[in-house]
Amino acid sequence: MQTSNKLTLFMSFVALCSGVLLALMIKLNSQLAMYSSPLLASWMAHGIGAITVLLMLFLLRKRLVGKEAKSTLNADASQSLLPWWAYLGGVPGAATVVLAAVTVNSELALAGTLALMLVGQLILSCIFDCCGYFGVLKRRIRFTEVIAMVMILLGAMLVIYSH
Predict the structure, then answer these.
(1) Displacement of CA 98 from its chain's centroid (Å)
(2) How many whole angstroms from its chain centre is CA 48?
(3) pLDDT at 78 over 90
(4) Distance in angstroms (rounded) separating the CA atoms of residues 84 and 31
(5) 89-125 per-position pLDDT tens digit
(6) What are the distances in angstroms from CA 109 to CA 34, 44, 70?
(7) How far apart are CA 139 and CA 130, in angstroms?
(8) DSSP output for the chain
(9) CA dist., res. 116 & res. 152, Å (int)
(10) What is the spatial distance between Cα 82 and Cα 105, in angstroms, rounded to a whole number?
(11) Closest CA to 48 of 59, 37, 40, 38
(12) What's the CA gap between 83 and 112, in Å, rounded?
């Protein structure tokens, strides 16, 4: 297997794990929202997440320094090149936690919420790809991708209305 194929396979596995963690995060946050509020659940999730990332940075700092990631940690070099909107990732993150906490605790449940979230992610991703928004490499959307999105939407509807 070529190196690029191995890397693609590994990155696909990492992305799959990320999806599993997203589902777990949404379920845990929605559980917290049931006993408090969606806003408090979002605040707690992001606060605990910030502490977790700080711990990871602390534990991995020796490994990160001296490698390619050093430029990522070098604030004066990398931050001067960043567009202003690159700092706004927490805004949709907070909104996602709040909205998912509400929808998971509705008739959509976890599977329906995640299915529709996937559809929303794909639609916005295709718009970004097509228009090149936020620095995404601009590319044409193929007909097969549109068909795949329609099939995923139909799958989401099956998940939601099959009960």
Answers:
(1) 14
(2) 17
(3) no
(4) 34
(5) 889 989 999 999 999 999 999 999 999 999 999 999 9
(6) 13, 21, 42
(7) 5
(8) --HHHHHHHHHHHHHHHHHHHHHHHHHHHHHHHHHS-HHHHHHHHHHHHHHHHHHHHHHHHHHHTTSTHHHHH-HHHHGGGS-GGGGGTHHHHHHHHHHHHHHHTSTTHHHHHHHHHHHHHHHHHHHHHHHTGGGPPP-PPPHHHHHHHHHHHHHHHHHHH--
(9) 9
(10) 38
(11) 40
(12) 35
* Distance between CA atoms of residues 45 and 6, nearest Å: 34
Structure tokens at 29: 């946050």
Q: Quote the tokens at residue 11.
A: 């990155």
Cβ atoms within 10 Å, residue 49: 14
Tokens (6 digits) for 105: 């605790």
pTM for the whole structure: 0.78
What would the pLDDT profile of 1-29 be if each residue is shown by its tens digit? 677 888 889 998 998 999 999 999 999 99
Counting every residue written for the chain, the total comes to 163
Q: Mutual orientation of helices 38-64 and 90-104 as an angle, nearest 10°?
A: 130
DSSP string, 108-121: THHHHHHHHHHHHH
- Give residue 36's identity as a one-letter amino acid code: S
